[in-house]
Every structure is written in C-alpha cells, then in structure tokens.
Design a protein that fits this description.
This protein has 251 residues and is of the alpha+beta class. The protein contains five helices and 14 strands. It folds into two domains: 68 residues, no CATH class; 167 residues, Nucleoside Triphosphate Pyrophosphohydrolase, CATH 3.90.79.
Length: 251
C-alpha cells in the first residue's frame, strides 16, 4: 500500500519517511505472529485501518537504518480540547474526564479528545469530539473554541511518524473557556458543570465522570500526555496574555 493522499495517511513527512524491507543480512530481532502462529521470513508487515497504519520493516534512520516498527496516524493525528475556567479559584481549573480506558489499566482521568479518521479535517474532529462523542454540547461551545499556541504534538516520538511543526501533522490542541457561573464546587477541591449543563446524551460507557481540577489536582490525577501538553500551552497563553503571572523563586 503506497503512501498518498488517497489513503488518508498522505502527510508530507509520511511520504518521505518510508519503511523498507528488512534485509536478510540484518537478521530478525522481531517475532511476528498471525492468528497465534509464528511467521518466518517476514521482511515487511503492514496493518491498516481508518485510525492508523502500523508498519514493521526497516526504519530509514541512524546510519543505514534498523529493524523496527512505526505508526502513521491518519492525517498526522487528532485533536484535544481543553476546557478551562479562570474565575472560580485563584488559579485556572481544568476539565478532566474519567474515561474507561482498559488499555491504560482502567478508569483514568483524561482530556476530551479524539483520533482522526481518514480524510477528516481537524475541525471535523473538534466538532465530533466536543459536540457529539463526549458531551453533545450545543454550538455555543464550539463557537468559543480557540487554537492553543505552539506546535502540534507527537504523542510518541519513538514510534509515531508525525512532524509537529507541519500544518496538518500531529495532535492539535484547542481551548474552550467556560464561565464560573456554569460550575459548582464539589467539596473536595474540584468543580463540576451544574446540573443540566451536561446533556443526557453523554456516553456513560466511555465517560464515567467529569470534573475541573486545580493545577495541583491535575498533576496528581492525570496521566494523559495530551492533557498535560494542553495545560502547559494554556498556562503559557495565560502568561503571554497577562491573565497569569508566574514568579520563579528558587531557594
């Protein structure tokens, strides 16, 4: 399968970073199994879906290259939407979703986000993520969406083929600022949307809870790297805009 725009994996970097076949002289350090049966003599393997393209073969880097695997995300990535409120505490608070993520060990606090389907633009991902999949929120939220500063993200620099400085590559980071009038204190140092603001259509099989955390609470609870990058970008935006002052006092 060639890498081109018709496949949905045709970013500029993916056209340049092409996996080759593993030379016989290189030996085989990987074992490949299909339907539980070990295959021998495999010099290149591809697994393709609408969500990703996984390739085992010869990586074109580090001298003459080496045997390895890479992942090509469709269109270079997806989107993350950071919901932030600046007026319920002396610092910004950030929304995390308690999602049923078995690949992460069970329920984990994550930022709202989504991967990218083939031939789907980042704005389509944004609308699908915020409006349909996670919350079903109305268009007023989408109208508040802003792009966060800085380059896009490569979520795994070792295995994911993404150029974060290319316009279409990487995970895109957005922000939605919500008013403190929309939130209520929980009592444990967190906040929730008031009753009625989260629609009945929220997928409880995916999203088990939704809370706003302070920066300290966020760091203690969140292992989602996309959320971490989004929060760092939001804090940077706050400093640049004058919303936030950082005092670096090292003792």
């Amino acid at each position: 399968m060639s890498l081109n725009s018709k496949t949905g994996f045709g970013t500029e970097l993916s056209k340049k970073y092409v996996m080759g076949a593993v030379p016989e002289s290189a030996g085989r350090n990987f074992e490949i199994y299909v339907n539980g049966k070990k295959l021998s003599g495999v010099d290149k393997l591809e697994v393709v879906s609408q969500f990703m393209r996984f390739v085992y073969g010869w990586r074109p880097e580090v001298g003459d290259g080496y045997e390895g695997v890479v992942i090509y995300p469709p269109g270079g990535g997806g989107s993350v939407v950071l919901f932030v409120c600046w007026d319920v505490a002396e610092e910004p608070v950030f929304l995390l979703l308690l999602e049923n993520r078995k690949n992460m060990g069970g329920p984990r606090w994550c930022a709202p986000g989504s991967g990218r389907f083939k031939k789907e633009g980042s704005h389509c991902i944004l609308i699908r993520t915020v409006v349909l999949e996670k919350f079903g929120l109305d268009g007023n939220f989408v109208n508040k969406v802003e792009k966060l500063p800085g380059p896009h993200s490569n979520l795994d620099r070792q295995f994911v083929v993404v150029d974060p400085e290319a316009s279409g590559d990487g995970v895109h980071h957005y922000r939605v600022e919500v008013s403190g009038e929309m939130l209520e204190a929980v009592g444990d140092g967190t906040w929730r949307f008031k009753d009625g603001l989260l629609p009945k259509g929220m997928n409880k099989n995916i999203v088990m809870d939704a809370k706003f955390f302070t920066f300290e609470g966020f760091v203690e609870k969140c292992g989602d790297v996309t959320a971490t990058v989004s929060v760092v970008k939001e804090l940077y935006r706050g400093v640049k805009s004058g919303d936030l002052t950082l005092l670096w006092n090292r003792k």
